[in-house]
Here is the input.
Amino acid sequence: GCGERMGVPTPKQFCLVLERPLISYALQALESVHWIEDVVVAVTRENTEAMEAIIQRYQHKRVSLVESGVTRHRSIFNGLRALAEDGPDTKLSKPEVVIIHDAVRPFVEEDVLLKVVIAAKEHGAAGAIRPLVSTVISPSADGCLDHSLERARYKASEMPQAFLFDVIYKAYQQCSDYDLDFGTECLQLALQYCQTKAKLVEGSPDLWKVTYKRDLYAAEAVIKERISQQICIVKDVKEDGEHVGLLEEMLKNEFKHADVTSKALGPAAGDLPRVTLERCCSFVCVNVMNSDFHETQKLLKLLEDSHLSIFYPLVVISVHFLAYNSVSFGEKMEDLRQIRELAKEVKKRNILLYGLLICYPQEELKLQQRVGQGAAIIAALIKERNPSLAGQLLVA
Amino acid sequence: GCGERMGVPTPKQFCLVLERPLISYALQALESVHWIEDVVVAVTRENTEAMEAIIQRYQHKRVSLVESGVTRHRSIFNGLRALAEDGPDTKLSKPEVVIIHDAVRPFVEEDVLLKVVIAAKEHGAAGAIRPLVSTVISPSADGCLDHSLERARYKASEMPQAFLFDVIYKAYQQCSDYDLDFGTECLQLALQYCQTKAKLVEGSPDLWKVTYKRDLYAAEAVIKERISQQICIVKDVKEDGEHVGLLEEMLKNEFKHADVTSKALGPAAGDLPRVTLERCCSFVCVNVMNSDFHETQKLLKLLEDSHLSIFYPLVVISVHFLAYNSVSFGEKMEDLRQIRELAKEVKKRNILLYGLLICYPQEELKLQQRVGQGAAIIAALIKERNPSLAGQLLVA
Ligand SMILES: [Mg+2]
Ligand SMILES: [Mg+2]
Here is the structure.
């Protein structure tokens, strides 16, 4: 089993990305790994309430809080103590291996966690590394270059790191106050105080530490990209004309690297598969025959049961068609206007509902163009996930 | 005067950010500094044509191309040679100071360029530095930790760097093939071969090197933020009712850190100030009385003369109002539908035109809410600058 703790809480880890605090993404990543038994978060006294609210709101499991110290190392030491002391008042017990991670590295995956844990079991300590992006130099006291390091011979030490609990706990118990106040590297403590040479494991670029404002932008874009990897087209069993087929084809073209599937919905076809509700954040609901939102509402009802909307804003696009020889554009827009109220309602459950009207032209040739434009609009809505545009009725 | 060259061309510098190659942003930043005389770009033979097309399309000035070498240092050496050899066939002449910069650092500003140049004049060499984000470690041959460096004692060496031309040229002439093939640090060459200790200058975080895909996301977000810093509300001189005033107030609320100004347009008021056309990328055109686009077209005509649309997609939002007691929603939507064709036309000139209809409710109380919603939609459109949604008519 593995305990787990977070770095020093800074405002950064409470920054909202897609309206959710950054730390919640890291917790989600850790709790999705079934063999991690406990997660210990070091948090300042003034942030404890905020942290508890986050745990409750996003239903995080297996998380215990300890008070953070004034430095990173002191916070980690507090986390280790909580795991070491098996008092009757705590549900924590001493693990064989402990992982150390930062709250501001939201994209840690099971793969690299497993690698550092296995390496820690063999070597006593292990940590993720990355190639250096910039050359590292040593300044002299007068602010001039003293010497530069050969870039290829050094690495950036990243997170996660893993340790045999006894190794890292002993290191923290034995290290000096100077280490605790000015040190930055846990692997170094294990080396210095336990003669444990950490195994270095190549990590992915996604392990980077969210440090600057631009990193928050990057994190948001990465998350948006990830939750747009799976698109589910929902249609009534009765509808399967060329309209839906063409749109599906065009959507596959827009989302070349995503998984676009289509599901029939209805009494005969049953509900959406459980796996779709557990993984898919982007839905396109196609309505050919009617101007109402019955189909869309059926889908929205199903999504109520999806826990995914706790974590991410789900997108639902209700697609309608207008043939050149049917009612006028103005009338159709009036008919569909109720989407506004519907969108307002489901926004409370973190679902972003948009409408799309595809106007069929008289000429067959322009049909492809129109549907292609519709697919481009759908792609834009899914990729951007803009809450201010929810309830809008777009036209292709 | 300062010559200037770019690092080794990699695909990254040709990556599109807001549909413009990354390198064009760096060139734009450099040519906006009037005291930089020449910019020398090292480019591979196979990328020369692409580079020439970029220079022409974005009207870059003072740029010369040299063939890049197989390594970064060899490319820089080629750039320096072009500046050194004053043949009759070249418009380049030897500068006193040369700046070395990377094409993948688009946000370099005059401030830091000036600092490194002044420091180079005094010390012979100077370079921008940043604090290390991660601890740097040295691996042993078996992939384990050998030792870690004390983070506070080291810095990341970034760009730009500046040198007395004679210093850095001599360094490149004297250094070994090993240096040219495996070295990464120009400051180190100046130190080793000319005993010149470079002055280190603290740079801003925006100097970072666009390396990973997430950096492209971050760069795009930074650029979008920058070009949304100035919002110009355009209205007819005849219109200045409470409608416009309320919207203006709400927009200022949405763009707390941006400069929101309003200009009257018309025969009496004259055109937009030159400074607005030279700096503003975001326009809100307010139409209270009419359902047409005369006002908007007047603005679009003025923007034709703006060179800014060569560099950035301009956003124009044509705002209309619908009173509860006037024509129906459907009719109004029909009336405004021509925006579609207009948007298609101006998109060719890199202008993204959107429509916004604000429906006035019967109750005064809800008015604020509606206009506030309109302002939120305007903010979303300006911040996202999504080309797929151009021509859409949104409703608040
Ligand atoms: Mg315990
Ligand atoms: Mg010359």
The longest helix of chain B spans residues 364-384.
